[in-house]
Amino acid sequence: MTRSIIIKNNQTIPLREIPVLGYDEFLEYNTSLLREHYNHCVNYFGFPQRNEMQLICCIANDSEHEIFVSSSVIDANTTQYSFTKHHLSFHIFERELAEISGINYCDHPWLKPVRFPADRKNKNSQIINYPFYNSHSEELHEVGVGPIHAGVIEPGHFRFICNGEQILHLEIQLGFQHRGIERLFQEKKKLLQRTTLAENIAGDTVAGHSTAFANLWESLSGFKADDDLQFSRTLALELERIAVHTGNLSAICTDIGYQLGSAVFGRLRTPIINFFQNWCGNRLAKGLIRAGKNNFPFTYNLREQLTQLINQFKPDFKEMYNEFKNLPSAMARLEKTGIVTQEQARSIGAVGMSAKMSGISRDIRTSHPHDFYKNINHEPILKKHGDVYSRTQIRKEEILQSIKYIRGMMENIPEENKNRNRLKSPSPESFCISLVEGWRGEICHCAVTDEQGELLYYKVKDPSMHNWLALALAVRNNEISDFPVCNKSFDLSYCGHDL
Amino acid sequence: MLENIKILIHQGKQYIPYVTTAKIPGIFRGRPVISTSHVDEQALMELCPTGAIQKNPMRIDLGKCTFCGECAIAFPEKIKFTTDYKISSNERERLIVKEGEDIPITLDPELIRKEIKKYFGDSLKLRQVSAGGDNSCEMELNACGNVNFDMGRFGIEFVASPRHADGIVITGPITENMAEPLQLCYDATPSPKIIILAGTDAISGGIFEGSPALNRSFLEKYKIDLYVPGNPIHPLTFINGVLELIGKRKG
Description:
The structure holds 2 protein chains of 2 kinds. Chain A has helices at residues 23-33, 91-101, 181-187, 191-199, 206-220, 227-255, 259-280, 300-325, 328-334, 342-347, 353-356, 364-367, 388-410, 464-474, 483-490, 494-498, and strands spanning 5-7, 12-14, 20-21, 39-49, 52-61, 66-74, 79-80, 104-105, 141-145, 157-163, 166-173, 430-437, 442-449, 455-461. By secondary structure, chain A is an alpha+beta fold. In chain A, the strands form 4 sheets. In chain A, strands 1, 3, 4, 5 and 6 form a 5-stranded mixed sheet that branches. A 4-stranded antiparallel sheet of chain A has the order 2-12-13-14. The radius of gyration of chain A is 22 Å and the shape is globular. By secondary structure, chain B is of the alpha/beta class. Chain B has helices spanning 2-11, 41-47, 70-74, 114-120, 136-144, 176-188, 200-204, 218-221, 235-245, and strands spanning 32-34, 53-54, 59-61, 79-81, 96-98, 124-130, 156-158, 167-171, 194-198, 226-228. The longest helix of chain B is centred in the last third of the chain and has 13 residues, at 176-188. Chains A and B meet through helix 3, helix 4, helix 7, helix 8 and helix 16 of A and helix 1, strand 6, helix 5 and helix 6 of B.
């Protein structure tokens, strides 16, 4: 008997085709898949089915471009054995399941609240009473930071246990940004409302999340995206990568007190986001990506502008980066700071830059290509050391790689399809998964529809879901004064995590 | 050292000299203009994802608008977004643009508290609180202080501690989980103090309006000194709004 159905990225299947296993077999099957390094869990969630709970687990095989989808139906009021016991990367999914449905795991090592959602099962669990790990030591001290931080950034609470200046342990408490997005996807019925929600999941990943949503919605509706739609989405994703990476290099310079780098990288981001505004009227690309249509076709005039912009950007960027890289005082702050080993990164299921920094080749553009990535032979940029400098280098090299891709793509702009098919309504009783490589890493949206084709469940996974734990591990044994630069080098999303 | 000077020369002057009169290039969606032509009003209203469009008379509430521009694409003869970025006001009603009107959005000088100009006219330090913001308004607020927009030239800056601040800038629809930290931050700010709501989410809840995960009761307790619409706000919208509030805007 087949224990899973094998599908591709952006494939819609009837819900009933997903094999339903007994929980023990479901656990054994999925955890054993992760013994192979080329497999990782892209999403694992549950939704109410009659009086029970249907769990769906999606394991991606990165070398064969396949996704194994399996499921199990359980009573949420029972105690279960955890996947996490076998592979730590499941920890966040199971914590999420426990928080929402009340499933109790008897052997989960870290069964703590994730985001204190409005529809959580245990209303006594309050954000103010988060159960922090505690040292009860006379020698060690604790440092609490946040939820409101010193800069203009989002809220989250960091609790350090330190020995003098040295960090022994960091626990990150999130949830402050929780807006109830997944539930709103079900409640707001208009497509434009849902698109707007996708655009507002994380304002620094507008192209990433709105592409994930558009691709998913088109697949559910049996709509094949024309070349010009795919082109725009891919271009937007690569531009977003350049913009955010450049801005982030500025932030890293700020955090080590390097004023010139901070100012120059900061200003280099401006023309890129202003190009988004020229293209679609919004500096962060809100309004650009729509399922089944394109309100802002990419014109030859825009190509001229972008070509010129990149020609000016690249030498300025390289000049600044080289100066920065040759500064011993800057490198001293970045090298060997905030290390995550490959073993750690693998065990927590790190994605995107947080995987690539320690040599793990995990990039949806290669492993499960969508849109124009099918035509680009993308090779992920990998580094070995897993430190702040590795993450800095990845940014710089990805920026140059994105420039190369954009130049290549612009040589052949697909014609706008003026007689586009109209979007139909989504197919009933179906399941669809959409994976996109945002600048931060792998974004995964999943949807389940009911008998009428209405959304029964919508699941969003931002790469930060996996990667916040990488930050907590990175700062161990580092000076607490290096925390800001470590944090910035990961640049994780609070709102993407909290939803 | 020589390399540094070379970089400075290559970068040239990046700042926008006149932030009150600068033109925004491209197709920015700022203050909309609604014509008096007849369209299917019901269809137009239903199109809007946040219920920002209402009829009798046809109007758009910029406090609710996400500036997606879909209404202008579907009904180009009825709605046009101009590049006018000066859309901040201190009166909620003034954010509502009615059909047949093409007049700038301004602050009501009568409503500006007297102490604001006196104390904050030359120096305004702000504490930002993201309460469910999606990091887009936060990035644009950071951009206000970068070398391009350089809000610091007017003495307007973001500070780390509420104790050093003259007011707070709220982004996001205000989540239940941030309601208490927001209150603590406001209480820690010494009086007199101002409150600025930056972005559609903060002003009305935006697309998140009605979510059970929000708690907007904070806003019922205090007078709001400035509403800055946008999704996200444009740095020029924010800077011009604040300059008008503290009586420093020329042009």
